[in-house]
Amino acid sequence: MGSRTVALACASVLSAAHLVSAQVPGAESLTALQTAVACASPPVLVNEPADAIRIVGSQDVVNREVFGTPEVLVLSHGANRGVKVNDLYYVRRLFRGAETINDRLPHTIQTAGWVRIVSVNEKMALANPEHTCTDIRAGDFLEPFAAPVVVEGQTMPPLVQAELNFDAYSRVLHGEVNKQSAATNEFATIEHGLDRNIRVGTRFAIYRDLQLDKNPLKRIGEAIAMSVGPSLTVVRITSARDAIFTGDVMVPRTSDGVQTPPPAPPEAAHKSWFKRLMPGGAD
Questions:
Q1: Closest Cα to residue 73, out of 86, 89, 60?
Q2: What gap in Å lies between CA 6 and CA 116, rounded to an integer?
Q3: Distances in Å between the alpha carbon of 111 and those of 65, 216, 235, 264?
């Protein structure tokens, strides 16, 4: 069966699939915060997946490679890869710049949105976007959708000025889509995750080290962990008196139970910058 015949076969059951889809609850029940976290980059670095289910085009009468909503998207696989009507999938791609467009290194993932499967045959499927975070493109790959678990503001206990665990600090790697800064209510990725026992809901104080002799660290904001990976965490900036930049320091609160790392080797002892937190606490 040729690809055109396969596409027509998929289209023939499209209307029936819509009737089933309407009866199944899905991502439309996400809160605004869950939606924002779902659109953020997950806390992992990955290589280009070799055999992923991908978007190959649309059911439009002209050839396009950039899509939005409403749309009927054509996928590269179907029942042969376990795809079923009403399944939800994230649509993702590696975030690359001009200098990394052809490398084979792990990269940040950009989430374009999520789609619902509306028609399937053995070798192909059709999908409708349920939510778009940015444009969807031909070549984007699919991953199974899972609603993010978040700690909503109204369920958070009051912020207590608990002692801060400077031995377990992390540094900001980048903001959203690899930006070098982040603002209040935006997301940033920091080093460390499950390897430091960070969990969803862990709260951080944000500091900046101006690298000035006998000058204490500058407290500039607060953040909370929204999604946690093996060695990276995505945090939401909850307050800030300046933009948060790459290299700024996230210090967890001891009440959140973040694990203290092993002691630094002797040759790194003089790098204990956190001793400069209070005036007079020079190295």
A1: 60
A2: 19
A3: 17, 38, 16, 36
Going by C-beta distance under 8 Å and a sequence separation of 6 or more, which residues neighbour residue 187? 36, 37, 40, 41, 175, 176, 226, 234, 235, 236, 237
CA–CA gap between residue 164 and residue 148 (Å, rounded): 27
DSSP labels, 95-112:
---GGGTT--S-EEEEEE
SS3 (DSSP) at 124 = coil
Distance (Å, whole) CA 272 – CA 178: 28
Residues 166 and 135 reside in one and the same domain: no
Domain residues for 237? 153-276
**In DSSP terms, which residues pair with 46 in a beta bridge?**
107
Q: What is the pLDDT of residues 65-112, one digit of tens each?
A: 999 999 999 999 999 999 999 999 999 999 987 778 888 889 999 999
Helix orientation angle between 14-21 and 3-12, rounded to the nearest 10 degrees: 50
Q: Are residues 219 and 119 in the same domain?
A: no
Number of domains in the chain: 2
Question: Are residues 113 and 205 both part of a single domain?
Answer: no
- Of 144, 161, 196, the residue that ends a domain is 144
pLDDT digits (tens, 9 = 90+) for 197-218: 999 999 999 999 888 877 788 9
Domain termination residue (choose one: 110, 144, 178): 144
User: Cα(208)–Cα(64) distance, rounded to whole angstroms?
Assistant: 46
Q: How many CB atoms lie within 10 A of CB 66?
A: 9
